[in-house]
Amino acid sequence: MTKRQKEVLDFLKEYLKNNGVAPTMREAGEYLKVSIATVQSHFKNLEIKGYITRSPNDARAIKIGSKPRKIISTKELINKVQELENRLANLELMS
């Protein structure tokens, strides 16, 4: 998590605690002094990493995630897929 993402997450936590609902994009942008597009980008990245969850149909439906997701590189993913393919091939040879 970047320093700025932590600031955004801390803001979300505090806002939720004080108001009982999440801020709108506009409210977050005003507080963070950034554009709505930048807020959307931060929220999207926090969601991808598992720090928050959002509902696409509700502007204030943001929940703090319980566990961040592990992000792996494309190379790591390819290696894991190849490893699984090798295991599967070995199992097929054994039967």
Nutshell version of this structure?
Helices cover 62% and strands 6% of the residues. The protein has 95 residues and is mainly alpha-helical. The protein has a two-stranded antiparallel ribbon.
Topology diagram in text:
Layout lengths: L2 H17 L5 H8 L3 H13 L3 E3 L7 E3 L9 H21 L1
Antiparallel strand pairs: 1-2
Helix pairs in contact: 1-3, 2-3
Mean pLDDT: 88
Form type: elongated
- How many strand segments? 2
The CATH superfamily name of the domain at 3-64 is Winged helix-like DNA-binding domain superfamily/Winged helix DNA-binding domain
Helix count equals 4
H-E string: HHHEEH
Report strand order across the widest sheet.
1-2
How big is the Rg?
Answer: 19 Å
Which CATH class of the domain at 3-64? Mainly Alpha
Structural class: mainly alpha
Write the CATH architecture name of the domain at 3-64. Answer: Orthogonal Bundle
Helical amount = 55-70%
**Uncertain regions spanning at least 5 consecutive residues:** none
Remind me, CATH topology of the domain at 3-64? Arc Repressor Mutant, subunit A
The main pleated sheet reads as: 2 strands, antiparallel
- N-end to C-end Cα span: 46 Å
Strand content: 5-15%
Give structural notes.
The radius of gyration is 19 Å and the shape is elongated. It has a domain of 62 residues: Orthogonal Bundle (Arc Repressor Mutant, subunit A). The protein is 62% helix and 6% strand. The mean pLDDT is 88. The chain has 95 residues and is mainly alpha-helical. A two-stranded antiparallel ribbon has the order 1-2. It starts with a helix and ends with a helix.
